[in-house]
Structure formats: C-alpha cells, structure tokens
Amino acid sequence: MSEDKTLDRLAALDTNAVSDALDFLQLKGATYGLRPLWDCPKIVGRASTVKVGPKTDEAASAHPFTPVIDAVTTDDRVLIISGGLEGVSCWGDIIANASKAKGIRGTVIDGMCRDINGSREAGYPVYGRGVTMISGRSRIVQLASGTPVQMRGVTVCEGDYVISDACGTVFVPAGRIEDVLGLAERIDHRESLMIKDVQAGKPVSEVMHDAKFQAIHAETLSVAAASNASYSKQMTRKAEREDHELVKLFAGLDSPAVSDALDKLGISGQVFGILPLTNYNKVTVGPAFTVRYVPASDPPGSVGDFIDDVAPGDIVVIDNCGRTDCTVWGDIMTQYAGLRGIAGTVIDGVCRDVNLAIGEEYPLFTAGTGRWMRTGKDRVQVGGVNEAIGLGKVQVKPRDIVIADANGVVVVPRDRVSDVTEVARTIENSEASIREMINNGATIAEARKKLGYHTLQRRGQRALD
C-alpha cells in the first residue's frame, strides 16, 4: 500500500479508535497529557524524533531542532520532541514558522511551548504539556535525533506513525500500522452504526446493551488475536548467515585468548567488572543485541518487550549504567530467552530470580554484586535498542561479537573479527608449544624464551620472535 493511502486511512480515524485498536492488540501508543496547545487541526504523519535535555555548559550551540528541520525532505513529517523541562519552553513562533515553511505537518512536545499565538497565526499545529513564557535559550540543548525517544511512557522510533487531535496524541509502531488501521477501522465502523441506530430512534438501552457490546468485543478480540499471531510469525527473527560465519571463527577460543589478541592489536574490548553468575564450563559467543536502560519516566515505560526482536544465537547486552539497586532481568526473561534460542545475557547491572538461570545453565553475566531481588519496574525503562552502548568501560555496537565465559566478557568490533581471531590462534598455538616443551623436559624459562612468550601480546610485535 502506498504511503499516501496509509496516511489517508489514518487521517480518516480519530485517536479514540486508534487507541482502542492498540489496546486490543496489546500495544503501547496512547499518551496522556499531550494535548493541542491552540485550537489547531489534527496532525497525521511520520515521526522525526528529537531528544532534548538541560544545557550544562556555557559553550555556544545551534538552536535545538534546526538541524532536524533543515534535513527534512518529505512532506509527511511530524516533529516528536522528548525530554522537555517543566515550565521551560522548547518551542516558539520562529521555529514554528520555519517548520511550516519546510512542509512539516506539526510538532508534538513532551514539554512546554511559548509564543503560542505565533504558532496559531502561522497555522502550525503544536501539541504538548502546556504553555509558558520562559525561554529555553541557554537552558535546553538538543541531545540526539532520529533515535528512539520516550513520550509519556511510550517509546517512539523514527518513522513511527503519529495521530494527534482534540483528545490527545497516539503513536503507532511502523511495523504494526496495517494491523492497527484494519482494527481501528472496524471499531470506528461499529461505533458509527451504533450512532446511526440512536439517531434513527432506537432506544439507547438497546443499542448499548451489554450483550451487544460483548459480541462486538469478542469479534474484535478475535481479529486482534489473528493480527498478533500473524505479526509474531512474520517478525520471528532468524540469525543471519554472516553472523554464523563470524561466530564460527571463534571456535576453540576463550576470553583470555581473545583478550590477548585485542591487546596485541591495540583494540579496547575487555569488559571491566562484568562477571559470570556461576562458573560456566562453556564459552558463549554471539552477536550483540544492545539495550540501553534509563531512569523511569512518569508514567513509566516498558522494561522488556525488546526480547521479541532478538534473533536466536544473539547475546543480549544491557547497559543499565552499572546500577545495582534494581534489576533488569529475571526468570521470565530467562525462560523466554531459552525458548527462543538466545545465546546469553550480559548486563552492566544486576539480575534476579537466579535459580532458574543457574538450573537451566543459561549464561548470565552481571556487574557488582551480580544479583539482587528488587525489581526494575517503575524504576528503569528501555531508553534505546540496537544503538551503541557502554559496558564496563567498553563501547559495544549492535552486532559486535561478544565472547563470555568463566573468565569474564570481551567484545570484538564486528569489522575486526578476522584480525582478532587470526592473532588469537597464533598466540594460542605458541602457548600450546610452550606447554609441549615443558612436558618434554624444558624449563619454563627456556620454553618461554624460545617461543617469545613475553612478546606474544605486545602490540606491534610478531607473535613469534
């Protein structure tokens, strides 16, 4: 279906029908408190996401949103701004006029706006928490754009669908737009028939009888269940052939061998302070599926739906900023990960419900104390998925290769896997030769000297002198 037709179908609905469809499909998307800031028209379009935050230095910076506005090349965009400060404006009439001139359809702000009359005069729709006269200049800066953002507890990704009207704002994940539209149209049609019945003189007690509602509810649930089942089947991720090939290169290697190779090549990849939950006998290797947690918003957002998108063989790598006061992984996640064939989980933070993970030998690697019982629900939420994150002083990018065993965790940049595994095998072979010489009667000093043990991991040195 063409993009224009999809937007036309969405525009023919209201936020109530779309919200109801999301409910039946068990999807988050409806928000509370992001209302029209003047008597503006409905907005329907695709999200261009921007994250703002407090300005913490005196350095000069571009006005927030100007790079995003300048980069817009289509006429279907809606600016979605998260991270606004209470009582401080992050939107005004000049930027509204610039957006209007660019063909942007409107702005939804999890924050405040000022100069609202200027937006009204420009005919530019603005939705948000409220209005203020306090300037955001020198108070607010743009932190990111085009990345997932949190809007009143809902995760919104670049390109998701947006509908805002007098009742508020709803976001629809791009991958579910067809399911949501189909169900919302059925709901809207049903309600239209009920209104016609009332207008035709039928008793409202008959039109709105519980039995009739129950029948409609049951039918709608049936459609929603079918849509969810179809989507789950379509979205079951499969490991890519390239991932298999890269993982195979690590056969027979462990984290110390890879660590030595990283040292020799001058690559930072040894993850500090992340240790195995128990003394695993096997080495776990897989591509990184990265997840970043942030402190919970009000209302709080999701803590774990990302796992549906993880492919078999992946290792879930979670950046919870080393927090040990709340967990981001428990027995339900462990059970589901095991059923899905997920290779393991590495957390810069802690987990709970460890008995299942230990009993099932599911590889879990955690920071600090490693485990604690307090839930992360309403304390943290997913802030981003499949973006570069920090893990024990190492940057991890999506699909980098993770090697984890009883010794700890190392991360190899995806584009350096061949170099690292080649050097690791050379070092391993040299150390095997040293052990063989010792078994045949050589002293350790003789064996080490002959095979250049002291330079094996030294950067810029050949593996054998």
TrEMBL record:
Q: Mind telling me what this protein is named?
A: Protein DlpA
Could you say which residues bind substrate here? G330, D331, I332, M333, R352
Tell me the Pfam families matching this sequence: RraA-like
Q: Which residues form the signal peptide?
A: none
InterPro entries on file: RraA/RraA-like, RraA/RraA-like_sf
For the ligand (Mg(2+)), the binding residues are: D353
Q: Which GO terms describe its molecular function?
A: metal ion binding
Q: Which cofactor does it need?
A: Mg(2+)
- Key word Ribosomal protein present in the record? no
* Keyword annotations from UniProtKB, A to Z: Magnesium, Metal-binding
